Amino acid sequence: MKERVKQVKEVKKKSKINWKVLISCFIIVAIVAFLGSTFTSQNTNSQWYQSIKPSITPPNYVFPIVWTILFILIAISLYLSWIDSKDKTKIVVIFSVNFLLNILWSIFYFGMRNPRVAFIEIIFLWLSIFWMLVVTRKFSKKAFWLLIPYFIWVTFAAVLNFLSI
């Protein structure tokens, strides 16, 4: 009986949303999105980008839609990982590394207009997402599944990056 009461309390505790943490996760991810977009948005219609853009590249309007969805999923994954993890430091490190690499890709590709360096960097970004998947899977299956679209999209972005070299 005591064990059952304990299980019910754990379920209630897990089902309660920690709004402060959730909002913080969305703010952090929004900052990452904003920083990356400052290098990207002004260059997607440039003559330089149009001259190297692979033919399989989706129309420009697709990217902000996809990235908005991905950043929402990443923020929720960060929240779930934070809530479910007993190793908060590991979560901070893994997501921070990924966020930095995400921003750096925009700087290298669009800011510096250097697809070669950006391609090397996107490999590290891809590996950081893989690392996120491995780690989050241990803490939260939901957080893991929310990152799968990000992994797939960055894989596609790496192909586009490679083709633009």
Helix fraction bin: over 70%
> Uncertain regions: pLDDT < 50 for 5+ in a row?
none
Order of helices and strands: HHHHHHH
User: What would the CATH topology be?
Assistant: Ferritin
CATH superfamily: TspO/MBR protein
> What gyration radius follows from the Cα positions, in whole Å?
18 Å
Q: Terminal Cα separation, in Å? A: 65 Å
Please tell me the CATH architecture by its name: Up-down Bundle
The total domain count is 1
Arithmetic mean of pLDDT: 94
Q: What's the overall geometry?
A: elongated
CATH class: Mainly Alpha
* Structural class determined from secondary elements: mainly alpha
Question: What proportion of the residues form beta strands (DSSP E)?
Answer: under 5%
Counted beta strands: 0
Instruction: Provide a count of the helices.
Output: 7
List the helices and strands and how they pair.
Blueprint: H1 2-15, H2 19-40, H3 47-52, H4 62-84, H5 88-111, H6 115-139, H7 141-163
Structure, explained:
The chain is mainly alpha-helical. It has a single domain, classed as Ferritin, CATH 1.20.1260. The chain has seven helices and no strands. It has helices at 2-15, 19-40, 47-52, 62-84, 88-111, 115-139, 141-163. Helix 2 packs antiparallel against helix 4 (62-84), helix 2 (19-40) runs parallel beside helix 5 (88-111) and helix 4 packs antiparallel against helix 7. The longest helix is centred in the last third of the chain and has 25 residues, at 115-139. The termini are far apart.
Summarize the structure.
The chain has seven helices and no strands.
Question: What key phrases describe this protein's structure?
Answer:
Ferritin; 165 residues; mainly alpha; 83% helix; single chain
